[in-house]
Records
---
Amino acid sequence: MSKKILIIDNSIQTKCERCSQFHRHFSSESSVIHTIDRKLPKHLDYYSHIILTGSAAHVNEVSDIYKRIRPLILRAEKEGIPLMGICFGFQAIVAALSDLTSIDHYVYPEIGWTKIYIKHPSTIFKGLPDNFYAFENHLSSVRTLPSQLNATAVSLKKNIQAIEHKSKPIYGVQFHPEYTAYRGEATVSRWLKRRVPFRWFTNIHKPPRYNPEISEKVLNNFFEQSKSS
């Protein structure tokens, strides 16, 4: 029996509307589990890859979602199953492999198209330019990393934008590689309708060189990874 991609939907209310975007260019079946509605699997043998989505929740001591996915992150690391965290999922991986003090929380979010600078070579950045634009929408970021993780990309503000495990196929990105240009524009419009200050935005207009296919390649590179021995 062929293995499935496991997508952990960390949405706090309605189920993820864009989970299909995570593997639309990769021919494999997927199983989506909404963290709030269903128990997470105790055994991961049925899955080839695991993705942890973003969330409006925070990675902190009161987050039920983080408490539920932390054991799964540790199992995936132990078993060497390819794991990728996006935004909240990225922060959850870092916290699970270290502690909650690794995460910073802001008063205001960071929203918009952000320039990502590749700091060190990484499997998920294979074939990508040294810098590119990707969409961000978050209220927290990673402050420090445990010894088993390397920072592989940063933003102009020097925020850690991506990590890679030193010996396991575990990756994380602060930005949203699954966002299409349309999705990014809709997110900006939604925030603007709430009349939020412009200082909340990293880039309110889509940059001329923005190409969603570049950050999308991050996901394809991840899916090409196999289980570590």
Note: The two ends are 20 Å apart (CA to CA).
---
Amino acid sequence: MRMRRLGVKDANIQFLPETRISPICGTIRSKNPGLVIVDSIQTISDEQIQSEAGNVSQIRSSTGQLLKLAKETNIPIIVIGHVTKEGVAAGPQALAHMVDVVLYLEGDKLHQYRLLRGVKNRFGPTNQVGVFSMSDSGLKEVKNPSELFLGEHREKVPGSVVSVIMEGTRPFLIEIQALTNKTSYGYPKRATSGFDLSRLELLIAVLGRRGGLKLDDQDVFLNIVGGLHTKDPALDLAACLAIASSLSNQSMPNKSIVLGEVGLGGEVRLVAHFDGRVKEAARLGFNVMYVPSELDNKSQNTRIMPVKDISNALFVLGINKLKK
């Protein structure tokens, strides 16, 4: 049914409804396929071991036999394992330690994108990320991830800021949105989607102490558009300016991006892979860049707005009427 839905025709695919490791290995040797996918290793068992499938000893034994078979026959074998609600490999890490490569397919079921991330690779780098879009006909490669995450971005909206994050070695342009609202209760609410909540609370404290913004009577909501989850420190300054933009009800300049890590002293610092982030933003037409003042950029196609600290960033944007 799934093959018909995906439009897969005349595919040379064979199925083996078996959960015992011995018949599985025997079939692989006799059929000599070009690729083997085992779904899932937690359901496979070795009859010589007296324990239930999914047990540590069962996983270790079954994976060991598949690993030995793959090296003897030179047949690539993909073993699918369960993950926890937090998105990490379930159970003991014996499976991850034994195999040559560990890949995570990440994504929110309520959003269309998926990230294929390598976290272990004995024969190559692990900082590579594949981006795919889930459609009715299956996963489709996204060749320009920035366009995916900025597909619905609108200019001149207060609280909306564009920044650049790194997923592996790939820079993505994303939109971060903030909304401030007068609190109806005694204690202001802080909520995030895709952004670390404790980091938001830290940035709010910096905005209040170092930037002079009055946020102790404001609910603050922060959202990364597209369902993306990240802890990239390059978003610090973008989050701060998004909050200030919403609080002042004034939007960021057109085609502008914001990059920089914010320290407890309010200083704005450079982040890793800065040149790659700037080049990706410039490639997509963003020509106004709020970046740390240490940056020495002579590009003629971009307008650099150096920012020394959070107070200076608010001054550059003209947000000075909200001081305490």
Note: The radius of gyration is 25 Å.
---
Amino acid sequence: MENKRFLIKKIAWGGALVGSFLLLMFTDSISGVNLFGLIHSNVDPEKLNVSIAPDANEDSNNVELIRTSVKRIPNAHSDTGDKLGSIVLSPLVSPVSPIVSPVITPEPGVSPQPSVQPARTSDPTPTPTPRPSQLNKTGKVVINEIAWAGTEASSADEWIELYNSENYDIDLSSWVLKADDGTPEVIFEENKVIKAGGYFLLERTNDFTINTALAGQIYTGVLSNDGETLRLMDSAGIVIDVVGKAGNSWPAGSSDGKVTMERTSDGNWKNFTGSPSAKDANGNFINGTPGEVNSSVTTAVTSSGGSGGDSGGGSAVTPTPGGDTSDTNSVTVVINEIAWMGTEKSSNDEWLELYNTTNQTLDLTGWILKSQDGTPYVTLLGTVGAYGFFLLERTNDQVISDVLANQIYSGALNNKGEWLELRDSSGNIKDSADFSAGWPAGDNVTKSSMERINPQQSGNNTANWSTNNGTTKNSNDAAGNPINGTPGFVNSH
């Protein structure tokens, strides 16, 4: 009987030991340390304070059994050290079903780190960069070069170049370049800017059309080799420039050699005639000047001595086909548009426009624009940009409500005609429009302006003037009525 009782006690203590470790594994409600803490600790089992509640029949062998079992737990070298505290075993309630309740009393130690990290200080808000939309949204931008024939690499590799004749940058966002037949139609993307006196390059399909220059924007749509009418409009829908006429072929350029069509100083067009430097998608030279100043006029010297060479018989100068034969040293600023009839708002709201035919800014200070009868008589003040316009409004700057005047003047134009002269600061006549016998163009009923057709031809020639076509116009009068004219912009003819 005694042996049986001893056997039952051994089984009970074995169960208690297993129960203790199961509780240590799955609970941390008292000390925050479970079995994994024991397994991964450096605790010395001899240092454990294992005490057993009073029981008259218990002996030291049981305590030693627990210590021996703890010694067998592998050491995994954690950083918990021997801060496990003491284990207290409660007395046996039943010799058959002992209940072991381990209680871990933590010793003083380092407080655990919080799992939530302190909030980071937010980065300072960066200073916003000025947007292109803060720039001028309109100005004198012209279609300057057209490669309607494409390049040697591909006839589909067409490109178009714009030029800004202003002395300030212009935001091209939402500007439109479109053909009258609907293709191409280019809507300029946001933040597209053309620099003062700079160029903006449009390449068709991809940026490899011109392999040596970056495109300002890529577009789609084919230019007809038979000719197009292209219109450039700003974001307000005002027509800024027009190239080509319905039913007409391109005025310059060639499919043979893929030669581009370049704008000249007088607003006309010529073939590229320079030494090429840009290259196409296949590395071939482009007969054009994408993103650069247009080619200058070249001349060919032909000998009268036959094909064998120069026999000393003299020579003749022949302009290159399509070339600009004008002399920009003698032709500078001209009288370009006259609103002698005023506007729909008031017949007194007259205005005049000058045009700079050169590729450089000119100072007009001290120049005189006057009528032979003495009125108006305007002493000019200010500058006019390359290929730019100089707008004079009578009495105030509301004559044309949405275009700024370069200068205000006084003095009425006679509706029956005037003889106008433009003289430089030295008194030299630079241009004249002798129409004292009657204006050759303009309409008093429709209030349509009188426009110069070719700045390089005489201003006294009646055939060199026409009435605004009523379609190409860009501004409003003081009452908001559309003006049948192009003040500050390219003429309709």
Note: Residues 2-26 form the longest helix (25 residues).
---
Amino acid sequence: MFVRSPFALPLLFALAAAAQTGDEAYRRMLESKEQVTADLVRQARAITDRAEQEILSVAAWEKQKPRRLEEMRDMLGLLPWPKRTPLNVQIRGTLDEGSYVIEKIAFESLPKFYVTANLYIPKNRRGPVPAVVYICFHAGHRYRSKVAYQRH
């Protein structure tokens, strides 16, 4: 049963207007989201394009290298450089694996703070060779702590 009231028609118009206003606000919000996303994508592309230019040649990289190293040190919390202390390296054992040896070492990264590591050294080398520092983690399971990275 429909109740006829002098307020029914204005109320209906008010509800319709409110619904349209809500739809309009939602539509504007979606448009804004799309615009912001498109702008972020453009900025990311520009950063990537500039970064590609930095490594196109050795000469291009050498110009950027000091600034990039400074930025990396800053991000790592190493500005200013911490005071260097003796590493006091100790070789705890050696494994001969044919074409390379593994030295089991311990060193002091800070005074009285020892870090253990395995140093893989190729036997047939002339002069300095590149090195890779691979940071391992301590896993939650005491018998499977190396499973995730040992194959590397």
Note: The radius of gyration is 32 Å.
